Amino acid sequence: MARRALKLASLAAAASGIYLYGNKFVDPNDFGVVRVGRAIATTAVITYDYLTSLRNVPYGSEEYDFLKSQVHLRSAERLRELCCANRGTFIKVGQHLGALDYLLPEEYTRTLKVLHSQAPQSTRQEIEQVIREDLGKEVKELFVSFEDTPLGAASLAQVHKAVLQDGRTVAVKIQHPKVQAQSSKDIFLMEVLLLIVKHIFPDFEFMWLVEEAKKNLPLELDFLNEGRNAERVAQMLKNFDFLKVPRIYWEFSTRRVLLMEFMEGGQVNDKAYMEKNGIDVNEISRNLGKLYKAYIILLDHGLYQVLSESFRMDYCRLWQALIKADMKRVQKYSRRLGAGDLYPLFACMLTARSWESVNRGIDQSPVSASEDVEIRSNAAAYLPQITQLLNSVPRQMLLLLKTNDLLRGIESALHTRASASSFLNMSRCCIRAVSTYQRSKSHSIFRRIHISLTEALSLWQINLYELFLWLKGSGLGNWVIAFLSRMHHSM
Questions:
Q1: What is the pLDDT at residue 11?
Q2: Which of 131, 205, 457, 486 could be a cystine partner for 387, CB 3.0 to 4.6 Å?
Q3: How far, rounded to the nearest angstrom, does the alpha carbon of residue 45 sit from its chain's CA centroid?
Q4: Residues whose CB is less than 8 angstroms from the CB of residue 373 and which lie 6 or more positions away in sequence, other chains included
Q5: Maximum distance among all alpha carbons in the chain?
Q6: How far apart are CA 355 and CA 145, in angstroms?
Q7: In the chain, count of helices (H) and strands (E)?
């Protein structure tokens, strides 16, 4: 009897296995035990590699630096494979790490950047299931046409082009069906594993990453929140005629489905697209979109933060101190923003410039190729201090650092880094913000006039510097510089 029961149980298990294998809605990678086991195994292998590969090598030697780079690369590749296999939250966190240029070793950022183009795609059946569950209708009832191939796929969702029954062309953002259920478990798993790694390597300070994910991921998974953010930023930036924010169609939107106005265009870091369509990449970098024949379109509104007044003013004053190379004020406001004794490193992270350039004044010369290499090398050398710093600064600063790196990444892709567009724009914003705050606190008309004149002078200096950079990078400017040089030598 027992043998027969065991045989029936085996047959049932086999049949269940065949059903699961043939059912497209079930992926073995989605089972908790598989995901947890894979994450634990990857973490163990990476930890063992760091513990053993550098054990008997003199610290600071050329051999040590070479081996450390190799361990970084192997570990980054293993981490990328884990993210691709577990998908969802893992890819989201991996993308975040890959975007931290100048903050993490290049081996990690270079390897993890590919996650932006390797996000998973949900099947047509899965997409129809989400739409059916959230909107209560079939795809064919809502749309005249619905393209099977997504316009783009990200870690949490993918976007399809479709046409509504009334003829409006829309972009349909649909959340991957399993992300909601897996996200909280994935974050808890990451937290446990990072705590274990920190116990082995006390200098390892990446808990800030988990804290950010715990706070921000629920917001990014709520597409109604994203729609509200889109409308809020459209209202805030309505005076920029070069900026477009797609309209939200609320009657077809839920927490997992977001319908937006469809707009044609290319990615902001696609230099080939810009050249093909006659768009000036320097104008994009310099003005974020004051272009001939072009608009900047803001699409992703899943995560925003409102900066507190005290944080905003400290940040703006720090930036002004960096412009003027006022080291006392750089130290003062860096400490107020949580950097402590690591304020030199904080200044370098914020500006993506070397400490020598910060001391000299970051407006004295644009970043050079050699300085860029130096910064990336230092990111690897000072990784423990960088992670410590990221763990201690206000959470608002993390989003600002990520945004700064994103803008620099676009400039690098468009080969416009030398124009220092993000630096110039940030400088203007900080000058205006501090001046506006000072005027609001002043009760003297003469004091307000003085503040306005100082503001105008500072903005004029930035415009003059921008003109200098433009001349330096243009054919006319090179001709003028060469002419003046010849005149100087002939005298």
A1: 37
A2: 205
A3: 27
A4: none
A5: 111
A6: 56
A7: 22, 7
Amino acid at 64: Y
Cα–Cα nearest to 94, from 116, 75, 73: 116
Exposed/middle/buried for 426, CB within 10 Å: 0-12, 13-18, 19+?
A: buried
pLDDT, tens only, 107-125? 888 899 888 777 778 999 9
Residue 300 CA from chain centroid, whole number: 11
For 19-82, the DSSP string reads HHHH-TT--GGGSHHHHHHHHHHHHHHHHHHHHHHTTTS-TTSHHHHHHHHHHHHHHHHHHHHH
β-pairing, 157-164 vs 152-153, is: antiparallel
Which pair of tokens denotes residue 409?
């990444």
Residue 426: which of 479, 338, 328, 351 has the closest Cα?
351
What interhelical angle do 62-86 and 369-381 show, nearest 10? Answer: 80
Q: Which residue's structure tokens are 């004029």?
A: 460
Q: Where are the beta strands (DSSP E) in 213-283?
A: 243-244, 257-261
Residue 242 has pLDDT above 80, yes or no: no
**Is residue 342 within 8 Å of residue 388, measured between CB atoms?**
yes
Do the beta carbons of residue 279 and residue 291 sit within 8 Å?
yes
**C-beta of residue 265 within 8 angstroms of C-beta of residue 297:** yes
Q: Do 92 and 187 contact (CB within 8 A), yes or no? A: no
Interval 188-202 mean pLDDT: 87
pLDDT digits (tens, 9 = 90+) for 437-446: 889 888 889 8
- Residue 247 has what pLDDT? 94
Four-CA torsion 279, 280, 286, 287, nearest 10 degrees: -40
Provide the pLDDT for residue 9.
34
Spatial CA neighbour of 171 closest among 143, 129, 140: 143
